[in-house]
């Protein structure tokens, strides 16, 4: 599978910028990728479906902590969440026991990486608005963002956040079985 040398991301105001590299074939696509519906992830991100992906900290440059506007909030004694103190963008999740791994909030990845480059020359307008096609194959969103798991599925909102394919878990994944469907349909 082809892979990018690196992808870029950052916060809303641009004060925090970073690059994630994929030096080896096994680095792509990234595997620790999931959607978490726990209340802490929701509160921190402001999203109903927060999605993070883990990367080796050594593959992220410059180190996030080297940026003076990057701050951390200890959401529990065992984990902290990173954000930009200028614009408030929620950026990371990290377990204290895993100092070499950091989870990046996938919404912080740059648009061209997620969606592909815009082909402005082929733009057209109709009653729905302006359509700007993307250059096929110029983005990495599908490989990068397909969620491998959904956790804290007990917090699904029926009819709103329960309609997703893929393995689901109640609480975290540790030593628990995955299921499909909706949490409310699990049998007693
Ligand atoms: Zn910012
Ligand atoms: Zn969570």
Automatic annotation (TrEMBL):
Keywords, in A-Z order: Lyase, Metal-binding, Zinc
Domain CENP-V/GFA: 7-125
SUPFAM superfamilies: Mss4-like
Any one Gene Ontology molecular-function term assigned to this protein's record: metal ion binding
Thylakoid found in the keyword field: no
Domain of life: Eukaryota
UniProt similarity note: Belongs to the Gfa family.
Protein name as it appears in the record: Mss4-like protein
UniProt lineage: Eukaryota, Fungi, Dikarya, Ascomycota, Pezizomycotina
